[in-house]
Amino acid sequence: MADVNRGNRPLSPHLSVYRPQLTSITSILTRITGNAIVVAALLIVWWFLAAATSPEDFATADAFITSWFGDLVMVLSLWGLWYHSLAGIRHLIWDNARLLDLQSAERLGWAVIGGSVLLTLLTIVLI
Fold it and tell me: Distance (Å, rounded) from C-alpha 74 to C-alpha 61?
């Protein structure tokens, strides 16, 4: 028999009380930055292929990559590369069963975020 009161009940009450932890947010961000790195790599490959093809193709690719939007994409990709690398190191630490308690895991999460921002700024300043 069909439940006639089904529409009156909340579908997912746990979603209204769930608070994402830093470790879950950084895990999701690691996956996002991995995909962003692929997009940046494709842009760089396009730039190299355009350079090898013709001056007109290179001018088009170079104009895009050196525009404000291209600069933004490259800076965010640089941050994503540093973030993804530091998150990978964090996972290597966890794979060795180190710093798995909640306080240490949260400190590592903040270290990955802060370290990636700092390394991105240092890379931009030094290069």
Answer: 13
Q: Which residues contact 84 (CB under 8 A, 6 or more apart)?
A: 30, 33, 34, 37
* Residue whose structure tokens are 């760089």: 44
Tens-place pLDDT, residues 6-43 = 666 666 666 667 778 898 999 999 999 999 999 999 99
Which pair of tokens denotes residue 75? 């800076």
Place of tokens 């690398």: 85
Domain 21-126 falls under CATH 3.40.50.150: no
DSSP 31-94: HHHHHHHHHHHHHHHHHHHHHHH-HHHHHHHHHHHTSHHHHHHHHHHHHHHHHHHHHHHHHHHH
